[in-house]
Amino acid sequence: MLTAIGDVMRRVYERGWITTRDGNISMRKRDGKYLYITPSGWRKTIVHPEHVVRLEVVTDPGTGCLVPKVRDGQQPSGELWMHWNLQQNTKRTRTVVHVHATHIVAAMYAGIDLQAMSAEFPEISRYTRVGRTVPVLPALSRDLADVTAECLGLGKDGALEFDIVGQANHGVCAVAMDPWGAYEHIERLDHICEIVLKSGVVSRSSGQVPSSGKS
Ligand SMILES: [Zn+2]
Q1: How confident is the model at residue 41, as a pLDDT?
Q2: What is the 3-state composition of the chain as percent helix, strand, coil, each rounded to the nearest 5?
Q3: pTM for the whole thing?
Q4: Which domains can be identified in the chain, with CATH numbers?
């Protein structure tokens, strides 16, 4: 599955969902001793299994919580906390993918409520559960990490209510067992956003403040 991380990175780059150094993917096996995550700053088009950063999961002596330990010389993605929030208590193999999917970001910018829109299209509502949009928050921030987990409906047992959320003026975060599963959630939502944007009916809930501008 580590190979799939690089393969998905190349595909999302080809689709224009990231520029060369953007985007990040993490993977953790069920009760896994390690968190695997893409490197920071590395060109994502040349990620291969040997470039994926392997962080040991250890118990923090201060808090008693499990944390990924970053050793000297390791350079995990700057969005490590967004990934770890979602990986910490997972009971099964889980992959988290964060990219800047063009049509989804455009739809949020145009004020489209992704949840309401998804409900209108069976292509997505049957297979992909879309959560509430994360408001505008600084990239790499702890706030972005925490609110992303909240919008994905993260429970204390590590279960998630949703498969994907948009992050206003930024990107998306999608979760599945494997990298291609998460990719499919993004692809479905991006496709519907593209259709809706092309229809020209950008804001059915006329008069509403774009959801991307609200907290
Ligand atoms: Zn990003």
Answers
A1: 87
A2: 35, 20, 45
A3: 0.93
A4: 2-199 (3.40.225.10)
